[in-house]
Design brief:
Layout (H helix, E strand, L loop, with lengths): L8 E5 L4 H12 L3 E6 L2 H13 L3 E6 L5 H15 L4 E4 L16 H29 L1 E6 L12 H21 L4 E8 L14 H11 L8 H12 L10 E4 L7
Parallel strand pairs: 1-2, 1-4, 2-3, 4-5, 5-6, 6-7
Helix pairs in contact: 1-7, 3-4, 4-5
Length: 253
Amino acid sequence: MNTEFKDKVTLVTGAASGIGKATAFAFAQQGAKVVVADIEQSACDVVAEEINNEGGEATAIAVDIASEESIRAMLDNTIQHYGQLDHACNNAGVLGGMVCLTADYPVETFDQVIAVNLRGTWLCMKYEIPLLLKTGGTIVNTASIAGIVGFETLSAYTASKHGIIGLTKTAALEYAKQNIRINALCPGGVRTPMAGFTGTDDQAAEDMVAQMTPMGRVAEPEEMAEVILWLSSPKSSYVDGHALVADGASTAR
């Protein structure tokens, strides 16, 4: 086992599947104590148990990042269990509707997407930063290439991800001299449930992403996890306030 993150406590939201799950495993494989957080306790339990069975150390905590109370409880439980926080990966999010033009987009859905993705990420940072001020550390927020460019019929999601990048840059400026680095990851098409990879008709999603991506293939969640670990490690010690795009050249056009 690589021990680059030995004895470091890492919180990963959205850790029950996709990029979050891969990131939780990657941190654990490098010696971190991992808090596996997602909206369903049972799903968190499964991932934490898998990590522990493989020789890592993880605990499962359910969280609804649209709820300030739930986020506070998650971080209180983290401190009660491990005594500190060293790294946070704010990965949880929702997609919202994909079939509506901006003028037709339902208000309720727009509010839900903003509440989870943008407000939820801000709330996580709001309560993570005071803990990181005690130890120093990093935050990586999962944005998207939809935070870099526009996407038709995806107005709420695109707005929320642009907002996450803005939050990331602002907070990085504010805490750059206090031993906290804050960056964002902007993935392209990744093999996750949110991208349509549900295990029932994956070929359609595979073909769509491959067609959109100059590299001609879908990214694996583990590839994004490696980027998150790099952004969290001393290897990226001078990288701060950056939105790192990992998209197979999709936004290079």
